[in-house]
Write a sequence for this structure.
């Protein structure tokens, strides 16, 4: 199943979306701000994988150690999506994870004359909704877009 | 036949049955009730001790690490050396609580045959005992001179951004920045370089935390440095304060660990990559890792809505909303995870309010990480071979930032631009870049610039400059230096 990860700067400006699945990295689309701040890094991780802190344990009779070390998560690793999400959250960005079926809702939100914070808040609310509720929201977005077009 | 020789003449031996006649007579005498009760108690204890000793003998020969034993309704725990720690009255009480009993049963199912309840409880008790009796020292900071970082800076950071109780004496012995470059071999893995590690001594003495300064300083992007450092430190401190923490009581410890087991076993768990990548044969480590990662997320959470939070309820909702959106969790599951962090913090650090700490987030990180940046810039300057040029910039770096006003900086840049045409383009590019680096180290805008300016690039430019400089004749060097000093003197004097 495809999963879409939308990511935002700390001021909630939209940076881009990444599509991932069990096969790892799918595709990535960056906004202008995203291209500027993350473009090189994302291009590099698409080719070479993502550097990520990993945990390991070492147990001896005297002590137990938790070890954090750096490992590379390959683009085709099924856990690439998880690694990317952890990576971008650790940079102080905000993330919304969606099933692909909810991407249409994000596109509707992008059509509305909203500021970045409002877009983020609408989408994060919508991501938690059940299907019946979601349909009502989508209808409301359509109505809002029509109203905005008329004005 | 050799005659048998008796040491005691047979005739001197007492008649058969006569040896215990005195004691038998005394036994028949009536005892007063107090003495009788004491004897009964002693008999009972002797029976218990004998049973326990026999059991421990069995345990030892079976190579069992630790365990519990119920004798006459009293729970005993023993450690791996086979010595009995105490009668675990809390365990007994917990065992009688139907909810907790259910928790313990389910945890046992998760951990399989490992007597995990006991080993957790023994470890927690050892740490508690150590903290109570050994008069432990405050946390010691080591190796900070390598980073030119005053220990007070880190102490301030810990006090403003992380739970104070997490670094109390007896919990953490030391936080060390070590120049470690050692291989660590563990089954199935060889680690060449690590970022952090938490060492839990089995004797219950406080945890030692090590951050690998070499690994941190090698990082290129400033954003990586920040996130790795804060992530590694918070994660390691969360390990030091999990259900083995001495400030918890037995019930809190059981509940906390049980919650973590439930959360990590749920199909709707948060899929932290580092937890998901733990193999199933090491599943015993998953709850600890999940807990540490979730706690790090909770403590570092400074997302939308945090500015309006005034109490736990608001924080719980805001953090749950963050988890639901970030990880695509159903609202109920996200709330469970948020409650876990809340419970853990209330148990291990009751005074800590994560929403208040989050408001200090930027300032606290900025103060601490500025020191790292400074060190990194110094390192970059070391790449300049020519000592006079190197000293020039090193001194420039040490000017107090107060001497730079916004106006002075603006004028300087105008002046620098005007001079731009006069100096050699290559030299100017390199000096300009280094100057930008240095100046912006003092700027609030530093972060924006540093994020797109990797350290390797600055070092590369510095190396290129050194090569160019060496190729110049002495006359040209003097002329170039004059021009460059004229251009960048303000960096040293702070005067335009």
């Amino acid at each position: 199943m495809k999963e879409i990860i939308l990511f935002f700067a700390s001021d909630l400006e939209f940076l881009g979306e990444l599509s991932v699945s069990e096969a790892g990295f799918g595709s990535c689309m960056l906004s202008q701000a995203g291209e500027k701040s993350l473009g090189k890094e994302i291009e590099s991780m698409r080719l070479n994988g993502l550097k990520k802190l990993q945990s390991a344990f070492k147990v001896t009779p005297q002590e137990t150690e938790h070890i954090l070390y750096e490992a590379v998560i390959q683009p085709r690793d099924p856990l690439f999506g998880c690694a990317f999400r952890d990576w971008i959250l650790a940079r102080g960005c905000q993330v919304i994870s969606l099933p692909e079926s909810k991407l249409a809702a994000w596109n509707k939100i992008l059509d509305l004359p909203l500021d970045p914070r409002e877009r983020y808040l609408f989408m994060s609310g919508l991501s938690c909704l059940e299907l019946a509720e979601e349909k009502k929201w989508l209808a409301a977005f359509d109505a809002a877009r029509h109203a905005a077009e008329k004005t | 036949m050799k005659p048998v020789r008796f040491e005691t003449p047979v005739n001197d031996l007492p008649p058969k049955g006569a040896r215990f006649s005195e004691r038998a007579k005394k036994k028949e005498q009536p005892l007063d009730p107090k003495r009788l009760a004491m004897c009964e108690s002693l008999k009972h204890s002797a029976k218990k001790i004998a049973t326990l000793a026999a059991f421990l003998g069995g345990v030892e020969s079976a190579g069992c690490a630790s365990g519990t034993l119920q004798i006459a309704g009293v729970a005993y725990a023993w450690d791996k050396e086979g010595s009995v720690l105490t009668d675990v009255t809390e365990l007994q009480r917990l065992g009688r609580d139907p909810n907790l009993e259910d928790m313990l049963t389910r945890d046992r199912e998760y951990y399989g045959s490992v007597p995990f309840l006991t080993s957790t409880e023994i470890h927690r008790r050892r740490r508690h005992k150590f903290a109570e009796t050994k008069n432990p020292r405050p946390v010691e900071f080591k190796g900070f001179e390598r980073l030119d970082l005053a220990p007070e800076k880190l102490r301030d950071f810990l006090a403003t951004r992380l739970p104070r109780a997490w670094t109390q004496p007896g919990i953490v012995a030391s936080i060390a920045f070590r120049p470690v470059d050692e291989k660590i071999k563990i089954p199935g893995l060889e680690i060449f370089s690590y970022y952090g590690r938490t060492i839990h001594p089995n004797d219950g003495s406080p945890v030692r935390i090590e951050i690998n300064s070499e690994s941190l300083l090698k990082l290129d992007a400033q954003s990586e440095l920040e996130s790795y450092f804060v992530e590694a430190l918070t994660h390691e401190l969360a390990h030091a304060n999990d259900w083995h923490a001495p400030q918890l009581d037995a019930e809190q410890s059981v509940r906390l660990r049980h919650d973590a087991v439930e959360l990590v076993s749920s199909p709707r768990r948060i899929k932290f990559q580092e937890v998901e990548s733990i193999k199933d044969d090491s599943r015993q480590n998953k709850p600890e890792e999940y807990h540490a990662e979730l706690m790090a997320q909770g403590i570092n959470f400074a997302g939308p809505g945090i500015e309006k939070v005034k109490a736990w309820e608001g924080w719980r909702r805001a953090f749950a909303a963050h988890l639901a959106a970030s990880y695509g969790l159903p609202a109920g599951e996200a709330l469970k995870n948020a409650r876990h962090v809340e419970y853990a913090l209330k148990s291990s650090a009751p005074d800590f309010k994560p929403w208040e700490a989050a408001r200090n987030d930027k300032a606290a990180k900025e103060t601490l990480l500025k020191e790292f940046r400074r060190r990194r810039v110094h390192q970059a300057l070391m790449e300049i071979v020519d000592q006079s040029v190197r000293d020039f910039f090193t001194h420039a770096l040490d000017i107090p930032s107060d001497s730079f006003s916004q106006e002075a900086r603006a004028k300087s840049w105008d002046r620098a631009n005007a001079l731009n045409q006069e100096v050699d383009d290559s030299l100017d590019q390199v000096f300009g870049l280094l100057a930008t680096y240095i100046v912006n180290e003092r700027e609030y805008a530093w972060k924006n610039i540093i994020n797109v300016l990797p350290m390797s690039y600055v070092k590369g430019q510095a190396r290129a400059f050194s090569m160019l400089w060496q190729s110049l004749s002495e006359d040209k060097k003097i002329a170039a230096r004059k021009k460059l000093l004229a251009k960048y003197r303000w960096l040293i004097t702070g005067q335009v």
Strands of chain A lie at 3-8, 14-21, 24-30, 50-59, 63-73, 94-99. The first helix of chain A runs from residue 32 to 48. Chain A has five helices and six strands. Helices of chain A lie at 32-48, 80-90, 103-111, 116-127, 131-150.
